[in-house]
Amino acid sequence: MAVNFDEIIDRKGTSCLKYDFAQKRGYPADVLPFWVADMDFRAPQVVIDAIKKRTDHGIFGYTNFTEEYEAVIADWMTRYHNWTPANGSLVITPGVVFAISMAITAFTEPGDAIIIQQPVYYPFGATIKNNGRQLVNNSLKLVNGHYEIDFDDFEAKIKDNNVKLFLLCSPQNPAGRVWHKDELQKLADICLKHHVLILADEIHHEFIRPGHQHTVLASLSPEIAQNVITCTAPSKTFNLAGLQLSNIFIENPELRKRFKTAIYNTGYDEPNVLGFAAAQAAYTHGRPWLDEALAYIEKNIQFAKKYLAEHLPKVRFIDTEGTYLIWLDFNAYGLSVQELEDIIVHKAKLWLDSGHIFGQEGNGFQRINVACPQSVLKQGLDQLIAAFKDL
Q: Count of CB atoms within 10 A of residue 5's CB?
């Protein structure tokens, strides 16, 4: 059954982080939000039906995942990502950021250095600092509108700072790079050489644009798989973030044991019963919905690129290769971070993710979530165009 992704669903009054918390976050009440990375699309009907069936049972006691669930996830990864995780490697967490914090706790000590590549998903840096670790940054290089890795700087920073852990964002958020296999191989080889553990946040791995291919880092070799924590989740793929369930794969049994101990020490043990029902249904029957969502998001990306080129040519559209996020460069206007933010929020009446929160490399940029009805996206772009037309 075709899904109507053009349908506008009112999310206000549902305790929705995206729509209901503007004033609490310091924004005007009437801003139109395109910030946090969840979709304005209703979840697949098979997911809704599975949740209804589970709630009809009426008992919501302590829960854990079954071998059946692990097999469903393994089949999905094999079928769509050409990688079969080892039996018993799955660990469930309530979210990927939680998993990052657990990895930091399990595999580093206070004061240890952890390397990231900014501009990057801002909880990376926050989680490192909040856990009392040292943030080391291997800045991505923007070359002719395309982000590249400075491998020499990456290795030098690892050696100079005795780095213990690398947080990889793949596909990259916010820049939208889908790393090539040879780029991933080079990163992994450097980390193996210097005994640096890798956490690969691959949560956006389903959102790959035509002409690009996501490579699961752990699929490169058995040796690399033993040095990687692979983080995925149905929260992005099927818009289930509120159900608090992520799939973390750790093939190295010693690393898995330490990771699970860190989780246990938080007091978090059994995960969300409805999250399992939803995830199993989604991974079993949700592919048609996802294919339609991907096609719709692709149309939105193409629309935004063309519309901005026609009406706001000073804004540089960084060609995204993956995710449902677009990364826009406003630096041609010569505005400070605060001046740009003031125009976006108070003149355009938009709530976007300001680029500076992804690291200083993001100064002058804005991140926009385009996983919404195209009419809503057009409204947001029209407000943006009107705010900047006289500048």
A: 21
pLDDT of 275: 96
pLDDT band, residue 1 (cuts 50/70/90): low
CB atoms within 10 A of CB 2: 6
Q: Is 220 within 8 Å of 190 (Cβ atoms)?
A: no
Angle among Cα 8, 9, 13 to the nearest 5 degrees reads 140
* Strand duo 365-369 + 325-329: pairing: antiparallel
pLDDT in tens, 318-361: 999 999 999 999 999 999 999 999 999 999 999 999 999 999 99
Task: Identify the domain containing residue 377 by its residue range.
Answer: 17-44+288-388
β 113-116/163-169 pair status? parallel
CA neighbor of 178 nearest in space, from 136, 210, 223: 210
- Asked if 281 and 336 sit in the same domain, the reply is no
- Say what percent of the chain tops pLDDT 70: 100
Instruction: Count CA atoms closer than 13 A to 317's CA, side-chain side.
Output: 20
Q: How far apart are CA 348 and CA 333, in angstroms?
A: 15
Buried/exposed 175-209: b ≥16 CB within 10 Å, e otherwise: bbbbbeeebbbbbbbbbbeeebbbbbbbbbbbbbb
User: Which of 285, 315, 340 represents a domain boundary (last residue)?
Assistant: 285
The residues facing 329 across adjacent strands are 316, 365
Residue 1 lies in a domain: no
Alpha carbon distance 349, 118 (integer Å)? 27
Cβ burial, residue 127 (10 Å; 0-12/13-18/19+): buried
Please write the tens of the pLDDT for every residue from 278-301: 999 999 999 999 999 999 999 999
Classify residue 224 by burial, with Cβ atoms within 10 Å: 0-12, 13-18, 19+: buried
Q: What would the pLDDT profile of 24-59 be if each residue is shown by its tens digit? A: 999 999 999 999 999 999 999 999 999 999 999 999
Number of residues that this document lists for the chain:
391
Question: Do residue 169 and residue 281 come from a single domain?
Answer: yes
Place of tokens 């605060």: 338
Distance (Å, rounded) from C-alpha 363 to C-alpha 331? 8
52 inside domain: no
